[in-house]
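Board notes (copied after class):
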Amino acid sequence: MAIKVGNIAAFDQNPDVGIGLSIPFQNGASNGNDPVFATNYTTALQIKYNLINYFLTRKGERVFNPSFGSIINDLVFEPNDPSLIEVIQKSIEEDIQSFFPVIKLKKVSVIPDFDNHTITSQIFYSVFSSLNEEVEFNIPL
């Protein structure tokens, strides 16, 4: 049974304690000083990487949570027209509202580039009422 969590406090009270991993994973150096798993020490930064991970995951890809993930990858071969832009924007807004209750969504921009056959999505949001963040990713069509 799912439990709805209210306001989540920031976990970055102790600057020496890591709370998550950055993506993409790094290629570790041969001397061992460059870690493969870069650690995030702030909640806002970890939420940003969780958001990126969410949109890189296809809906149904996660074994025991088939509702987790985005439909954006399923739209790759759809015609690049204004109705697709609306579908992507609505999907992003609904997904963030459903899976990221701690994020206050400011704006979602979906910008088509017909010449290069891509769509750029920009998500502007705030976390914990004071931090302004932005995530941008390209969708090849």
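Comment from the instructor: Confidence is low (pLDDT under 50) at residues 1-6. The first strand starts at residue 20 and ends at 21.
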